[in-house]
Amino acid sequence: MKGFKDTHAETHVGIELQMVLDAFPFYVMLLDADHKILLANKAIRGDLGLVPEQIVGEYCPKVVHGLEEPYPGCPLEEAIKKGHGVECEFFDPDENRWINSAIYPIRRRTQDGKEIFIHFISDISEKKQASVEIEQNYEIQTIINSVLHLSLEDIPLNEILKRVLDLILSIPWLAFDSKGSIFLVEEKPDALVMKYQRELSKTLQMKCARIPFGKCLCGQAALMKEIQFADCIDDRHQILYSGITSHGHYCVPILFDGKTLGVINLYLREGHRQDQKEEKFLKAISNALAGVIIRKQTDHKLKRRETELEIKNRDLEEMNSALNVLLKKRDEDRKELEENVLFNVKKLLMPYIDKLKNSKSNNRQARFVNILESNLNNMISPFAHTLSHKHFSLTPLEIQIADHVKQGKGTKEIAEIFSLSIRTIEFHRQNIRKKLGLKHKKSNLRTHLLSIQ
């Protein structure tokens, strides 16, 4: 092996070392401090299409990379400087892959005193891609959680739309332009209304303030309920204006239970390639935003309903107040009427009753005068009014008899007033007692009647 002492033992060790290196599926080399290749495994030889004699002893950057100086990112210079192993990862744009490059000193030297290093070069593109996908998926989930959390905050829906669009456009690995907008469906069911925009021209804001379903890319997304992609201005771009620059779009419908709630409109640079991963992310964001919109709209409806109920409650309270005023006024009018009737009866009728009673008349006429007086007293008696309201089961005659009992008149006197027999009056008195709940004989009817207000 070139660079080592040419003895049988060293040759045997070199052969065994070559076999060990050939067992690795990735690149493995032995190098000296001047980048001279001392040994290369089968993976390198196979990829380069060279035999060992064409590799061993050659300048590594020249053989592997076709360079006259070290390849940018080669860790050998750093390992020599630091005196220990070095590892690094870098992206090779020519091969479109990620490389892990590691080099370690093996504590041996060549015949001319150069330190020997073992160099490992492996393709880690799949591992790197998996790591990137994990990181991106985590970032996507974080953003979706942030969107869902917005529904719990006490902020207007327009502010939520602003934050969602800003979140989407802030993701570094998505090649979106910095412009976009979000539309919602409002009162008119087949039209989109722009609710938030970012960096759109005044002209475009006016032209796209309201877009019917089916018009332009956003209207197509709303109508078809599918993502509309464009990598340039094509025939579907129906809204044009002077000075428009070529661009692409992702127009993502916001759907809930098969119904279009709105559209997320994102701008792309011309020539952007359609990407399933991007569309999957945008659908996830759209679904999360749909839930937020539904919740906010439901909250808004509930608050509006609460406001309506509060207004109706206030109206009812005002109506009740008005009714109370009317009822009070009615009571006042009733009292005034009663007072007028009482005044007229006492001042205009009762004096004549007294004159009739004092005049000479036969018994029959006297009874009629007494009956007339009794009926007039019943008319003006507050007790009769109270008793008729509190005890609806009393007949009019019973109310009149009860009033005379209250005045202290006896059964015989009451019988004469009504031209009824004493037995009939006693019968009515017993009925009055039963209806008033006076079951005990010791209970005095007049005392009980006097207690009724």
Overview of this structure, please?
With 453 residues, the chain is α+β, with helices and mostly antiparallel strands. The chain folds into 3 domains: 8-123, PAS domain (Beta-Lactamase, 2-Layer Sandwich); 131-303, GAF domain (Beta-Lactamase), CATH 3.30.450; 360-451, Arc Repressor Mutant, subunit A (Orthogonal Bundle). The protein is 53% helix and 18% strand. It is built from 15 helices and 11 strands. Strand 6 and strand 7 (191-198) form a beta hairpin. The longest helix has 83 residues, at 276-358. The chain is rod-shaped.
The termini sit apart by 133 Å
What is the domain total for the residues?
A: 3
Number of E-state strands: 11
- In N-to-C order, the SSE pattern is HEEHHHEEEHHEEHEHEEEHHHHHHH
CATH superfamily of the largest domain: GAF domain
Outline the low-pLDDT stretches.
1-9
Question: Given the helix and strand composition, which structural class is it?
Answer: alpha+beta
- As a whole number of angstroms, the C-alpha radius of gyration is 54 Å
CATH architecture heading of the largest domain: 2-Layer Sandwich
How much helix, percentage-wise, in residues? 40-55%
Percent in strands: 15-25%
The description of the largest β-sheet is: 6 strands, antiparallel
Count of individual helical segments = 15
Keywords:
453 residues, Beta-Lactamase, Arc Repressor Mutant, subunit A, 3 domains, 5-stranded antiparallel β-sheet, 18% strand
